[in-house]
Amino acid sequence: MQDKDAIQGVLIQLGTEVVQSNRKEDFQILLDTINNLLNTDFQRLISILYRVDVSENKLRHLLNTNPNEDAAKIIAALLIERQKQKIESRKNTAKDNSIPDDEKW
């Protein structure tokens, strides 16, 4: 379930409408969106990767070491990985109720 949530979170970050579909369809929509950005609005894709906090060094390394792999798949995998990290972080933060409500921001 976390993969589906992560993929849908990435689609939202990319400004793509999320419809009720399965993980495979969501992933294909993600790939199509990334490919479209690669071909038509590369600067926007770079901006999104920066905003989502995808490691530039990791992306460069993966693209250089996997020259025959579809770049959209590599980018999608990194976006999903980062989204999963954010989901996990939010879960861990939500579990930490040691801060009194009146001191929370």
Which properties best describe this structure?
single chain, 105 residues, mainly alpha, 5 helices
Domains, number? 1
Could you report the average pLDDT, rounded to the nearest whole number?
85
Q: Could you describe the largest sheet, including whether it forms a barrel?
A: none
Q: What series of H and E elements makes up the topology?
A: HHHHH
Low-confidence stretches: none
How many DSSP H or I helices?
A: 5
Count of beta strands:
0
Into which percentage range does the β-strand content fall?
under 5%
Return the structural class: mainly alpha
Distance between the termini: 30 Å
Shape: globular
What is the percent of helical residues? Answer: over 70%
User: Which radius of gyration do the C-alpha atoms yield?
Assistant: 16 Å
Describe the structure.
- It is a single chain.
- 72% of the residues lie in helices and 0% in strands.
- The chain contains 5 helices and no strands.
- It has helices at residues 2-13, 23-40, 42-52, 56-65, 71-95.
- Helix 1 (2-13) packs parallel to helix 2 (23-40), helix 1 packs across helix 5 (71-95) and helix 2 (23-40) packs across helix 5 (71-95).
- The longest helix is centred in the last third of the chain and has 25 residues, at 71-95.
TL;DR?
With about 100 residues, the protein is mainly α.
List the helices and strands and how they pair.
Layout: H1 2-13, H2 23-40, H3 42-52, H4 56-65, H5 71-95
Helix pairs in contact: 1-2, 1-5, 2-3, 2-5
